[in-house]
Amino acid sequence: MQIAIDCADPAALAAFWAEVLPGYALQPPPPGFDSWEAFLEAQHVPKEEWNSRSAIVGDGPRLFFQRVPEPKTGKNRVHLDLHAGGGPAVPLDEQRANVRAAVTRLRGLGATFIKEYEELGVVWAVMTDPEGNEFCA
User: Fold this and answer.
1) Mind listing the pLDDT tens digit for each residue in 82-93?
2) Please, are residues 64 and 2 in contact by the beta-carbon 8 Å criterion?
3) H/E segment holding residue 135
4) Structural domains of the chain ordered from first start
5) Are the CB atoms for 4 and 52 separated by under 8 Å?
């Protein structure tokens, strides 16, 4: 299983999410190739298409980033939730501190903070990645 994410710059967005998600990294090139560039060249993929796709892999589903021509136009119908606060079993003060620390780290990686929320004993923040895709921290 994988989650596909439409974007303008697959390499940049994959690199961002590889830094954000613990245990994730850029997908290595196929066996026998020391880089994706070497693989793509061997497959005769035109250089202007080399950044048309990228992926990260880790303990969860593969995240596949694909270049699309149109810009993002509305709110995501699906988003990633990093669960930074820890959930309702964690005291609210600790959740707030966890979420605020995550927001600081994520802003340093290129995310944008939108708003912090607190409902039903859970604290989270809505943010966007460098291409404006919403996610929760």
Assistant:
1) 999 999 999 999
2) yes
3) strand 134-136
4) 2-67 (no CATH), 72-137 (3.10.180.10)
5) no
